[in-house]
Amino acid sequence: MADSKGGAMLLIRYGVNRKQACKNSLSKWRSVHHVYEGCVSGVSSEVEQQEGHWPRAKGVALLSFESMKDAQMWKDCIPEIKQQDWMDGPDMVLVPMRELPPPGKRYVQILELEFSQENYQRYMSEYVPATKDILHKSGASESVVASSAPVNLKGAWNPQSLIINFWSNEEEFHKAYTSEEYKPLKEMRQELALTTSCSFHLEDLFRSKGAC
């Protein structure tokens, strides 16, 4: 399990009816996050689906760590997580980050992609460079996560590839996502990959500047 220079992000996908339980559990073990150089980026339950099939009534918590190893050790040392009935069995996926999530950008887009090797090469050579320009002009912090090697730690969610972008607000995201400039690129991506796209506001769990 190789570490990236940007650290690692742990995604916890849980039933929205368990949001408060998730917040309580993460708050309770806040000190352990710091032991393993961790940070709770935030939680969300109001997820908007743009494409594909995001599971109904599922929210997301994002946790950042300095390494994949730290994230794994955090998960293994929290007693509650080991219990089968913890939050009714959420999904947990670990991915390397290219950079830390920007504290001032709290609107998140998750793209889950599944494609053949041939289509992946075209995606990387044609779609990614063109999309970078649009994201940059739109003010996004693009590809905080851009991983073709997510690691399933718990539950049934086992994505082939994940892209996670951070935006200042919902309006900026939708303006870029629905723009005429992005339309042909979106159509290209949909031809190349089975895609699920969803977005949500990331609630600062601790009501502080950095949420750590």
Automatic annotation (TrEMBL):
InterPro entries noted in UniProt: Dimeric_a/b-barrel (IPR011008), DUF1330 (IPR010753)
Residue ranges occupied by any DUF1330 domain in the UniProt entry: 122-193
Pfam family, any one: DUF1330
SUPFAM superfamilies from the UniProt entry: Dimeric alpha+beta barrel (SSF54909)
Superkingdom of the organism of origin: Eukaryota
Listed name of the protein: DUF1330 domain-containing protein
Species annotation: Capitella teleta
